[in-house]
Amino acid sequence: MFQKGSLPASLPADPMPLFAEWLAYAREQKAQRNPDSMALATSTPDGQPAARIVLLKRLVADPGYVVFYTNYDSRKGREIAANPRVAGLVHWDAQGRQVRLEGRVVKSPAAESDEYFASRALDSRIGAWASLQSEPLSSRATLLRRVAEQAARFGTKVPRPPHWGGYRLWLDAVELWNEGAFRVHDRARWTRSLAPDGDAGFIAGPWAATRLYP
Ligand SMILES: Cc1cc2nc3c(=O)[nH]c(=O)nc-3n(C[C@H](O)[C@H](O)[C@H](O)COP(=O)(O)O)c2cc1C
Fold first, then answer.
1. Domains assigned to the chain
2. Atom of ligand 1 nearest to the CA of 134
3. I need a surface site. Which of 7, 49, 59, 102 has the fewest CB within 10 A?
């Protein structure tokens, strides 16, 4: 089942098209329920890391960022506000592949978050209002009561909550890893600089590629 195909002998200048190809292939294969799940590691300013799964909803090869959605007031949201440097990891076990990501996070433009929020199922939109993600919850009944309250409050017209939206993870390091027989895996890392460019994101330098021992 897994791809024996290794990385090209001559590494491409930009890893993003190959990353996009691997993601599209994993989605197409349907060998796992959530081929776009990504472990996202954030950390506190004093260096305590924490990881959780989010869905990688969009990959923008040029200029090179991925998008995920969450509650801005959640633990990850608060950690990102204090330290926007994060790491991501996508693993496709059936394909024998992983992609490591490192970079810096900015909030998606509000209009883009609005558009994605509007595309979500009604129950998910109500859930975004009902859940105080990462806060202590006295009982499951309290959550169910909040869901019912928010459903009654909004009916079918549910606007995006101000505390919920997208993040763009701008990449300054990408590592593509392809499983090989007898642990002779194939692995390469691309890095580039990111210079802050206002709220919009970054001006990215060119990628530099290096093959690594597995
Ligand atoms: C397959 C899967 C996909 C998930 N996708 C998301 C997501 O896209 N956004 C999100 O906020 N939480 C998602 N979660 C829940 C998170 O893993 C996590 O429990 C939640 O965001 C709270 O994390 P925090 O307290 O560290 O902020 C997902 C969980 C799983 C298992």
1. 16-117+163-211 (2.30.110.10)
2. 25
3. 49
